[in-house]
Amino acid sequence: MPPQPPDETGRNHAVKRYVTRTYGGLPRYLVLNSGHFMGPRWRRTTRFTRHLIDDATTITDAELDALLAFEWRSRLTAAWLIGVDRRERFRARLGDLLLASEVSYSGGAYCFALARFGTHTDAEILTAYLDRYLPRTDLHYDQPAALGALLHLDAHLGTHHAARFTEPDGLWAAWAEGVGHLGHPSDSPAELRRWTDRQCEFANGWERP
Questions:
Q1: How many whole angstroms separate alpha carbon 138 and alpha carbon 207?
Q2: Longest dimension (CA), the chain
Q3: Closest alpha carbon to 125 in 108, 106, 111, 142
Q4: Which of 48, 81, 150, 158 has its CA at 20 to 30 Å from residue 117's CA atom?
């Protein structure tokens, strides 16, 4: 369970309602982090999805701010809710958190939200992240998620931001080799883009009119 913040901040209530609510015995943040909700078992029920859509539209900006200022579980959940509801006013905040890379696990959710926003500005944020962290072959942060999101945006926008990273001798190949992921099928650029595509298709398929 995540650590509980002081009640007076209002964050304790937000954590209980949005982050640790359980589905199939698993807290929401864990389901989101695992991607289980996009698998066959979870597609047989709409409970998790409907609650996610409902909460994404009803959570307040103040509650999102409180979650983003807390630990990784809360930040991950908040970013998913922001992405599902496409609250673009949080773009700069998510970009700052992604570039800072202060905590583990939540960065992939920031990348999902930026992919959902779908603009050139989001592509620039992801490009800046990759420029900063792909040369760091000693660090395995959210480079795969960022590249997948950028490739998704390139396809959506008709741009080629990711091309210089994915060329044969580019930064992606050097980073993947440095961290021991070169040749890993799930870390190929095509698979990384496909994963972001699936995330966005999931959100697109359930968003409110």
A1: 39
A2: 53
A3: 111
A4: 48
What is the value of pTM for the model shown?
Answer: 0.90
Q: Which residues of the chain have pLDDT under 50?
A: 1, 4-6, 8, 209
Interior/surface letters 55-93, b for 16+ CB within 10 angstroms, e for the rest? bbeebeeebbebbbebbbbbbbbbbbbbbbbebbebbeb
Do residues 129 and 146 lie in contact, with contact meaning Cβ atoms separated by under 8 Å? yes
| 20-56 per-position pLDDT tens digit | 999 888 999 999 999 878 876 655 567 888 999 999 9
Using CA of residue 15, residue 17, residue 18, residue 19, what is the dihedral sign?
Answer: positive
Domains and CATH numbers, the chain: 8-206 (1.25.10)
